[in-house]
Protein 1
Amino acid sequence: MQVLLSTAYFPPIIYFQYLIQSNCVLEGNENFQKQSYRNRCSILSANGIEQLVIPVKHQEKTKISIKEQEISYAENWQIKHWRSIISAYNHAPFFEFYKDDIQAILMSKIPMLFDLNYALLNLITSNLQIKMPTISENWEKLSDNFIDKRNEIHPKLNNDLSAETYHQVFNRKFGFTKNLSILDLLFNIGPDAHIFLIQKNKIDSYNLSL
């Protein structure tokens, strides 16, 4: 069986747990869904958890394919996002190591949400030595072969798999905060994130059957 994941903007840590511990496929044929990780992520700032949301262009269609969903650049949201990321992680041990490549993609004004997410995911998986998921060709035809986790990894759901912790910039102020964006793990522990995702949070058969 394979695990089906949605596209996501700087996905949460659990997303990468599935990528590194199971055979994953990225859904490329679903409709865009609001208020999901498809266009938002959670980081930990000096004021607590902060949501970064990519604005999207509104379409006349009621439903629109995820690959056809355009990003709105009417406002300089990417500059705001990058300033928030700097504020949150400027003092993280590995921020300087990864920041330039991430900033370059974020500022490139890629038109489509799916393509921006894919470029960022490709960069992060490459840095963490994780295999990129393949993109589904036809969801209806392949549905029986997948364990669908697209909507279980959601901002409104408790997605944490383990109580394991790592050092965070604002540990002293907030204690440990679970399952933030992969940026939090990457900037705080760097290359050791690969080991953390494999050893610290095991995805068992129970989690793969939910």
Protein 2
Amino acid sequence: MKIVALCGAGVGTSAILKVTAERALKRLGIDAEVTATDVASVRAVASDAQVILSSSELVEAIGKTNADVIVVDNYFDLDELTQKLEVALG
């Protein structure tokens, strides 16, 4: 399974989201590859992703996708992300 964490530049915020997602997936007992990327690269990187994690501001930039797009309000909130991933993947 592939999950993509998206932010504007693909460095800081997406790296934080990637780490939080990995912790949430571990909590759920789900094995997945989590990749951090930027808006410019999201279509290529997420072409085979099952889930894209994003802020509400960047959802439009994702464009057409077969992946589930999860809007994350607080990138540090492990409980929020665990719950949203459980719903999307459960």
Protein 3
Amino acid sequence: MNLSEINWDIHAAGYWPAPIKNLIITMVYLIVLTIGVYFDTLNQLNVLNSAKNKEPTLKSEFQKKQKKASNLQDYQNQLSQIEISLDELMRQMPTEEELASLLVDISQTGLASGLQFKLFKPEKRILKDFYSELPINIQVIGKYEELGLFVSGLALLPRIVTLHNISINPDGSSGNLIMNAIIKTYNEGDTATPTITVNKKRVIKK
């Protein structure tokens, strides 16, 4: 085949020899394929590699979520138990109408134990997330067993009462003990601190 005898005019391409036409078609195919790979396939390969790199992280997250899902019933049971416990604690908080009566019960518990009150001072209410805390500064004088009866009596009250910052020192003048402490009781809401007058006389047990 003499290439000089071929009419290379593009309009006469139909008359070119078959090997020439096959060669040109192959070149055009390779050019189109290269352009397609460059503009499309390479981008898809980058996306695929990125997805492969994320696979370990996604697999780890899936395993964690699967573990949580398998323990969902246990979590729900624990939540139900917590809600029941919280509800019971909330019911043990005195209402505003019961608060003044509770303060009287606290003072009467001390007096009935044989203690003498030197100080019974409700402080300003402290607001928490969903309840308020009422601290009461107390100072009582009595014997060791009387202090024990007082603490036991507080634990038996129908409402939540806790003792904090307890310090016990001897009273040199009488041979008794002086206990300083903060009693805390709790209430829903943010109502004002109730006022109460405490009988500080000691009850002599027979």
